[in-house]
Description:
Number of helices of chain A: 13
Order of helices and strands of chain A: HHHHHHHHHHHHH
Distance between the termini of chain A: 41 Å
Distance between the termini of chain B: 7 Å
Radius of gyration of chain B: 24 Å
Oligomer: heterodimer
Shape of chain A: globular
Number of domains of chain A: 1
Strand content of chain B: under 5%
Largest sheet of chain B: 2 strands, antiparallel
Number of domains of chain B: 2
CATH class of the largest domain in chain B: Mainly Alpha
Shape of chain B: globular
CATH superfamily of the largest domain in chain B: MetI-like
Order of helices and strands of chain B: HEEHHHHHHHHHHHH
Strand order of the largest sheet of chain B: 1-2
Number of strands of chain A: 0
CATH architecture of chain A: Orthogonal Bundle
Largest sheet of chain A: none
Number of strands of chain B: 2
Structural class of chain A: mainly alpha
Strand content of chain A: under 5%
Largest interface: A-B, 104 and 109 residues
CATH architecture of the largest domain in chain B: Orthogonal Bundle
Radius of gyration of chain A: 23 Å
Amino acid sequence: MNEARVKKALLALGICFMLxxxxxxxxxxxxxxxxxxxxxxxxxxxxxxxxxxxVDILTIxxxxxxxxxxxxxxxxxxxxxxxxxxxxxxxYAVSRIEFRGRMVLSLAVLxxxxxxxxxxxxxxxxxxxxxxxxxxxxxxxxxxxxxxxxLGFWIMLSYMxxxxxxxxxxxxxxxxxxxxIFRKIILPVAAPGMFSAILLVFIAAFNEFxxxxxxxxxxxxxxxxxxxxxxxxxxxxxPWGYIMAASxxxxxxxxxxxxxxxxxxxxxxxxxAIKG
Amino acid sequence: MRKPVTFTRNRKExxxxxxxxxxxxxxxxLFIVIPVLGTFWTxxxxxxxxxxxxFAYFSNYRRLLTDSDFWxxxxxxxxxxxxxxxLEMALGMVFALILNERxxxxxxxxxxxxxxxxxxxxxxxxxxxxxYNYGYGLANYLIALLGLSDAPVNWxxxxxxxxxxxxxxDVWKTTPFxxxxxxxxxxxxxxxxxxQARVDGTNFLQRFFKITLPMLKPVIAVALIFRSIDTxxxxxxxxxxxxxxxxxxxxxxxxxxxxxxxxxDFGYGSAIAVVVFVIAFLxxxxxxxxxxxxxxxx
Lengths: 276, 298
């Protein structure tokens, strides 16, 4: 039949387009990061491979790249673990304890994930300033936890709803309290959910821009996205080699995480958006 | 239909539940609910650096009505959503259909599609900024290579060029998310329906329009609204690629509000932020209705 052949051709075409579309900017970023001269496409200039951009961003102190990286890893790491923990506690209660308002609470948490960041940042800035927290990790950690809670909560909830309540019943018959059951039984069973929540929240926090832009002022708390956005040369020119090298260093860990754990990502990104 | 309740509802259980949700509720109230209310409140004040703060009723909102820059950023944001979302949805659908095929390299393809999703937005923005570079960007190189234009295009130098440059960069970054969501929808359609249709002698286009599309409708609606809410508040991509230019023509509502915050005008900035909030909130309400979330819990 002819249809099978047409479909096969279309599929091959589609795959080629998809790969070119998704990969070319990423590959371009990496190529420029290894080039001595970002203008090698402008005719007359040869591409010269070098590790110089990487050596420079890692060793020139005034670029502060390592400090931005350290800040990003510290803030995102703390936020990911704390958020998953808080979300797991909440999801445990909502999934297994009959209390008034559990439905409203879940829907409200979901609604909060849709609040635009711009509608929080003005007040957050004044709040952090009044406590002298501008340009500290704390100024980022708390807003980030709140901002990523919906993601973590819905992931944990979908995992916990699938754990049979018989687990709880058996333990309660043996006299175990709620918190004991949570810690000793449910949390270990829901470990893949915890892992997934930590992974996705880490990626979200690592990417965050507007809060970090307003709430930090220099390398003592500034994160990688803000550092990369504000990267400027000493003489006003844009140091593309440095920026692409910094971008590559910032992206590779996330890309590796996403690709290595694509099953979790595909499953739980969807859960956050489509109910349970 | 409510499932049989395992534990009887009693006061002690309620107290336990309260303790479990306390950290979650506390952090959300302190760092989301109160800041949003604070923004509404601040929007009613003249709150500018170096001037005494004073209650100003609705004067910030009156100023919005006659602020042509505000309306320009309003129109830009709406036009951006109306252009980017259909493109994302169409492309995301194509990707999802490909990823749903039984191919040997399926996992590798899925991994590839995740790359734009995993790359930080700011990194994507910087990369696209370089792609659009007039003298040595990849875009002008490809255009010369394919012979599409004699002279290089100044992508970010004209309002129209900058608009579509931003659209392409945004579509690149967000299409994977749409594809993942639609893929999840595709996987819920039972294979037998397609088998039956095949027996009935339909071709794959007919099957797409008669089976796939109608059955995906709820998932498409969810993805559509979810992406709209996200795009209405766009800021970071634009901040890097055009910073709202040229001549302010690509300033989104969020970026416009940010610029006032950055200058220390918290009153007017908050009024702009309230507008973004209200639009996103109305979309969220329809999202919760379309998504049928309440049912997930039963």
